[in-house]
């Protein structure tokens, strides 16, 4: 009996993990598409996707894979969380089958060190992702090393995202000590709260430093500029991966083949912008379908 089969008889660690990690979980029922897409008939099996919808790459790629799987005849269940730690735990234990937009090389390296032996790397869809500290283009600040000179304008605050994010850990454990920023407060709550503060500050053209990443639609919408990182404290670029629970590739080789054909290095920003900014929340399937209709040769077919 493989791990996926054994999982069906357990209580499911993901339910407990999600409940204790701020996550608002939602699962499809009866194979219906939570994002409004056509439901698969389930003949190909049931696959559970786990992602973090407040991170726009997770929202975009989770719903893209969901749509493709349903179109190919799978029943898809989704678990939406707000922290990466419980997601990796559930993935390693088989309570989630696929994490469609993972950052395992740098951002989530600590999770891979802990759980990597029971996780499969199915491949990448974007090859030049990176963590940043960023400012609006009008800012006088050029480098992270300049930040202490702007303590008053910044109110000695760096505006961050979720406390459990890999970017938050890198900021706390690497960037702040590397640049002597211990007197600054790294404000953590959520990506949504960070964006709200960024919007307020940019509308007033006031100084603000936020923790960001690329690819992410906010870089263009708010006209952001990455601060120089002469100490290399944020690490280098990394790829965005599809990760799966152990044994998945043997059970679903056709999904692995689809991932191998997917390359969004040139088109991802436009896809994410369509999903996040041109359609309302809950209309992800419509957004992705419209984008695919306008870009017919980009997404390989799984069906």
Describe, in plain words, how this protein is organized in 3D:
By secondary structure, this protein is of the alpha/beta class. The chain has two domains: 3-128 and 238-294, Periplasmic binding protein-like II (D-Maltodextrin-Binding Protein, domain 2, 3-Layer(aba) Sandwich); 129-226, Glycine betaine-binding periplasmic protein, domain 2 (D-Maltodextrin-Binding Protein, domain 2). Helix content is 38%, strand content 19%. The protein has helices at residues 3-7, 13-20, 56-71, 84-93, 109-115, 151-154, 166-178, 191-203, 218-221, 248-251, 253-261, 268-278, 284-294, and strands at 46-51, 75-80, 98-102, 119-136, 157-159, 185-187, 210-214, 224-226, 238-245. Strands 3, 4, 7, 8 and 9 form a five-stranded antiparallel beta sheet that branches. A two-stranded parallel sheet has the order 1-2. A two-stranded parallel sheet has the order 5-6. Helix 3 packs across helix 12 (268-278) and helix 12 packs across helix 13 (284-294). The radius of gyration is 20 Å and the shape is globular. Mean pLDDT is 87; it is low at 1-40.
Q: TL;DR of this structure?
A:
This protein has 303 residues and is α/β, with parallel strands linked by helices. It has 2 domains: 183 residues, D-Maltodextrin-Binding Protein, domain 2, CATH 3.40.190.10; 98 residues, 3-Layer(aba) Sandwich (D-Maltodextrin-Binding Protein, domain 2). Helices cover 38% and strands 19% of the residues.
SS content category: alpha/beta
Largest sheet: 5 strands, antiparallel
Overall geometry comes to: globular
- Average pLDDT, rounded to a whole number, is 87
The CATH homologous superfamily of the largest domain: Periplasmic binding protein-like II
In percent, how much strand structure appears in the residues?
Answer: 15-25%
CATH architecture of the largest domain: 3-Layer(aba) Sandwich
Distance between termini? 28 Å
Number of strands: 9
- Low-confidence runs (pLDDT<50, min 5 residues)? 1-40
Overall CATH class of the largest domain: Alpha Beta
Overall helicity: 25-40%
What's the CATH topology name of the largest domain?
Answer: D-Maltodextrin-Binding Protein, domain 2
Number of domains: 2
Order of helices and strands: HHEHEHEHEHEHEHEHEEHHHH
Total DSSP helices: 13
Radius of gyration from the alpha-carbon trace, in angstroms: 20 Å
């Amino acid at each position: 009996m493989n791990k996926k089969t054994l999982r069906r008889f357990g209580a499911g660690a993901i339910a407990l993990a999600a409940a204790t990690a701020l996550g608002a979980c939602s699962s499809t029922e009866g194979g219906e598409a939570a994002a409004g897409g056509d439901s698969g008939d389930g003949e190909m099996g049931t696959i559970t996707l786990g992602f973090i919808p407040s991170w726009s790459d997770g929202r975009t790629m989770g719903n893209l894979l969901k749509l493709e799987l349903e179109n190919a005849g799978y029943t898809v269940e989704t678990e939406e969380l707000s922290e990466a730690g419980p997601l990796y735990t559930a993935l390693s234990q088989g309570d989630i089958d696929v994490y469609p937009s993972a950052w395992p090389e740098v951002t989530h390296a600590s999770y891979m060190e802990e759980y990597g032996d029971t996780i499969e790397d199915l491949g990448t869809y974007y090859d030049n992702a990176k963590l940043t500290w960023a400012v609006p283009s009008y800012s006088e600040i050029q480098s992270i090393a300049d930040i202490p000179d702007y303590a008053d304008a910044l109110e000695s605050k760096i505006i961050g995202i979720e406390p459990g994010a890999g970017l938050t850990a890198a900021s706390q454990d690497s960037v702040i000590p590397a640049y002597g920023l211990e007197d600054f407060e790294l404000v953590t709550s959520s990506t949504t709260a960070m964006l709200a503060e960024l919007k307020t500050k940019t509308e007033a053209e006031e100084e603000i430093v936020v923790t960001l990443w690329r690819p992410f639609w906010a870089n263009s919408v708010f006209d952001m500029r990455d601060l120089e990182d002469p100490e290399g404290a944020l690490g280098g670029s990394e790829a965005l991966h599809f990760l799966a629970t152990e044994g998945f590739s043997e059970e679903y080789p056709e999904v692995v083949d689809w991932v191998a054909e997917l390359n969004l290095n040139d088109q991802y920003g436009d896809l994410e912008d369509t999903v996040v900014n041109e359609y309302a929340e809950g209309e992800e399937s419509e957004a992705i379908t419209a984008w695919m209709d306008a870009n017919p040769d980009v997404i390989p077919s799984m069906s």
